[in-house]
Amino acid sequence: MSKKRTNYTSAFKTKLVLELLQNESTLAEIASKHNILPQNLVNWKKTFLANAEIAMEPSKAVKEYKEELIKSQEQNERLTALVGKVTVEKEWLAKKLKSLGSSKIKQLVELKPSKTSIPFLSVNHQCQLLGINRSGLYYKPRVNHAKQIIKNHITKVFEQIPIYGEKKVHEQLLEDGIKVSLNTVARYRQELGLKAVLAVKQVNTTIPIKEHKKYAYKLRGLNISHANHVWSTDITYIKIAGGIWCIWQLLLIGTAKQYYRTRYPTLWILSW
User: Fold this and answer.
1) Which strands make up the sheet holding 230-239, listed edge to edge?
2) I need a surface site. Which of 20, 45, 148, 259 has the fewest CB within 10 A?
3) H or E segment to which residue 270 belongs
4) CA 42/CA 30 separation, integer angstroms
5) Cβ contacts of residue 243 below 8 Å, gap of 6+?
6) Interatomic CA distance for residues 7 and 196, integer angstroms
7) Is the Cβ–Cβ distance between 269 and 248 less than 8 Å?
8) How large is the C-alpha radius of gyration of the chain?
9) How far apart are CA 66 and CA 56, in angstroms?
10) What average pLDDT does range 162-173 have in this prediction?
């Protein structure tokens, strides 16, 4: 069983050192009298003499203590600001790294120390900072050669006939002896980012043209109460295989009974 260590108070240490400095008893006598080691008494004497100046000039000691305290506070403030800056930069970099793909993030890992003066981090530490698994660095993906051949052929067909859609490309692949489903062709074209290039741009009739004049709506808030009160026209375009049918109608807007509004076509013209 180990012996419990004895702790001596500062008053006891000062008393023994003063007794030793009076030279009335030897070092061994004082140590034997108080049952302590002589080396402890020697160490206490050195500490007492080293700090004797503080007892003679306490104001100087307090001034030095305050100066050291101010310096330490300023240093703590600088370190706190630096830690906050580094934390913000780390969070910003973490958000930017999420937008990158896993393959690009893996390229940032340095497997060997570089010749620059930047300290080298272990691979495990780098993976932790980048948020990736270390085992993924050594994984080599298997290349699907059949898939790559089909993609190359689809790209070749697109370069030769860019107006072909997925159905035409699928038929062309079958003619060339490549057996593949229509869904596979559509998926591969989507992965390659290929779309049919149309010679004529489709007209979007739902988006108004800014140069055209806009007429105010005259019927808002109008109470249609009798026959022949309001007349209106309507033009409808119907797209068919050979062209477009245009129907022009003249409408009579009136009221049926008391609460229901009706529209009655009085004239219509069909043109090709």
Assistant:
1) 230-239, 244-256, 260-271
2) 259
3) strand 260-271
4) 11
5) 272
6) 90
7) yes
8) 47
9) 18
10) 90
Reduced to 3 states, what is the DSSP secondary structure of residue 256? strand
Give yes or no for a contact between 154 and 185, defined as CB atoms under 8 angstroms apart: yes
| CA–CA dist 39, 30 (Å, integer) | 12
CA nearest 121: which of 90, 129, 92, 94? 129
> And the tokens for 249?
């109608």
Integer Cα distance of 131 and 82 in angstroms: 23
Q: Which amino acid is at 175?
A: E
Note the pLDDT tens digit of each residue in 69-108. Answer: 899 999 999 999 889 888 888 887 777 777 777 777 777 7
3-class DSSP state of 72: helix
User: pLDDT at residue 259 above 60?
Assistant: no
Q: What are phi and psi of 61, to 5 degrees?
A: -65, -40
Burial class from Cβ neighbours inside 10 Å (0-12, 13-18, 19+) for residue 146 reads exposed
256: region left, alpha or beta (phi > 0 left; psi from -120 to 50 alpha): beta
pTM attached to this predicted model: 0.33
Amino acid letter for position 12 = F
Query: In this predicted model, what pLDDT tens digit does every residue of 99-128 receive, in sequence order?
Result: 777 777 777 787 777 666 567 778 888 888
Which 3 state secondary structure label does DSSP give 233?
strand
| Range of weakest confidence among 52-66, 109-123, 220-234, 248-262 | 248-262
Cβ neighbours of residue 48 closer than 8 Å, sequence gap 6 or more: 13, 14, 17
Q: How many CA atoms lie within 13 A of 1 on its CB side?
A: 1
Three-state DSSP state, 188: helix
Annotated domain spans of the chain: 10-50, 145-192, 230-271
Which carries the bigger pLDDT value, residue 54 or residue 155?
A: 155
